[in-house]
Amino acid sequence: MLEVKDLDAAYGEVMVLRGVGLSVGRGESVAVIGANGAGKSTLLRAISSLLRPRGGAILFDSNRVDHLPPYEVAALGIAHVPEGRRVLPDMTVEENLELGAYLPGPKARRRESLAWVYGIFPRLAERRRQRAGTLSGGEQQMLAIGRGLMLRPRLLMLDEPSLGLAPLVVEVTFQKIAEVRKEGIAILLVEQNVQRALGLADRGYVLDGGRVVLEGPSQDLLENPHVKVAYLGL
Amino acid sequence: MDLTTIFQAVITGVLMAGIYALVAIGLTLIFGVVRIVNFAQGEFVMLGMYVTWWLWKAGGIDPYLSLLITMPVLFVFGVLVQRFLFRPILSAPDMAQIFLTVGLSVVLMNAALFFFTADFRSVKTTYSEWALRVAGITLSVPRIFAFAGALVLAGLLTLFLSKTDIGKALRAVAQDREVSMLLGIDPERMYLLAVGLGAALAGAAGGLIVPFFYVFPTVGVVFVLIAFVVVILGTLGSIQGALLASLIVGVAESLGILFAGADLGLVVVFAILVATLILKPSGLMGQA
Q1: Domain ranges of chain B
Q2: Does any CB of chain B come closer than 8 Å to the CB of residue A76?
Q3: pLDDT tens profile A52-86
């Protein structure tokens, strides 16, 4: 469904991604792991067109999407939950969710989607009239994911959902992501929390210095000596 | 000086506050969404005044009725300004943006001078001189209309921003442009809408005051200065803040004129601005 081929990306003069190749199949969940600065966020930003790639191609359903503006990429059914959650702080929880279904297709299903998202995240239903900026970190993460789901995406991209959250909250967040996965939505998850990410995903890629250095089924990666030493501290 | 005179000045200031708020809300809407400080906002008011005056002069159209024409005309003008003047310099340094909007202001003033001459124009309606007298205080009817009209428009804008999807999308772009794109919003279209609305509000402010305010090419200068004070005092981006700050500024100006003379009304306003910047730089509604 999603295919990234030989992708180069840079911020100004600094090359961040070099020849990255990656694919996500229908309903598949894929993790991209790597240290801080390995280019994980840049990869997601390139896929959602927030960043123009320098080279290579990004295909969704075999069509190139790397020259579309971000709002057209979203319209294809790719939801990007950005790093740091980025909820709209001055709007209520419900307004944030409603804006997740801004595009015509998702808007037609807005009521149904709201009920669905509130079903997955009952906490958000309790706080629907509250300003998003006043939520706790964990609640903001749920809101950011819920807002992404309002798009009724076929691919949900999550950038560091565990960032800055207490271990118990990380646990809950990943349970929720597992629930979303069961709905048949493909997930592309970028994480520093390697154990959690590979625990959830079917397959994984290890990004180092902007290159894919390893890839394979999650179980193989978890048992890989390099991964054990470099990312799991074993 | 008796109490009635002071009270009269306060009322006059309050009635003018609605107009100041409209101009300031337009300014803050454009800044909030597009991140451009529009020094030509006062000239948008001036254009609204001339359009209204011209419609009255050439077509005999009542100034309030002509709001239905003035606002759409100014909206389209704002959209064109965004598309052809603001868009090319959005990522330019602040200084370039300031030069552009100041330049636009000068061009518009001189265009008005060229087409309409420097003559002071006025619109005389049957109700221009109407006034209510309550307990020794004179309430000018067109000023009451201007205040009420401004409040209605500010209320409609608030409803638009809080209840409609497009209004929410505008707020989303103001709060986080990148995230708004991920949600499927095209920011360029929201920029067109924001500048269009900002210009339409300024045009409405101009149209509402025409029955009691002279029209001349540099009339906008005062409005833009006051709008900046209102926006800073009232915390950038807040409509309620703009309304409250406009009341303070309007009354301060009016009392300043009463106690210090007609030329010094604005001095009082700017003294308040300086005091705000020293004591509470984030404005009245500011968090810190």
Answers
A1: 3-279
A2: no
A3: 999 999 999 999 999 999 999 999 999 999 999 99
**Structure ipTM over 0.90, yes or no:** yes
Nearest CA to CA, how far is A120 from chain B (Å)? 20
**CB-CB: which of B165, B171, B181 is closest to A70?**
B181
What's chain A's length in residues? 234
What is the nearest CA distance from A88 to chain B, expressed in angstroms? 6
B17 shares contact with chain A (CB less than 8 Å): no
| Calpha distance B181→B189 (Å, rounded) | 11
Decide if pLDDT at B196 tops 90.
yes
Q: Which residues of A touch B168 (CB under 8 A)?
A: 91, 95, 98-99
Select the residue from A85, A90, A98, A152 to test the B interface by mutation, using most B Cβ atoms within 10 A.
A90
Q: Return mean pLDDT, chain B.
A: 92
CA distance B143 to chain A (A): 35
The CATH code of domain B3-279 reads: 1.10.3470
Rounded Cα distance between B212 and A233, Å, is 78
Q: Where are the beta strands (DSSP E) in chain B?
A: 131-134, 137-140
Which spans in B117-186 are helix H?
141-163, 165-175, 177-182
Tokens, residue A43? 């990869």
pLDDT tens digit sequence for B226-267:
999 999 888 777 788 889 999 999 999 999 999 888 878 888
Report how far residue B49's alpha carbon sits from residue B121's, in angstroms, rounded to the nearest whole number: 10
Q: Over the stretch A30-54, which tens digit does the pLDDT of each residue have?
A: 999 998 888 999 999 999 999 999 9
CB contact under 8 Å between A88 and B181, yes or no, is no
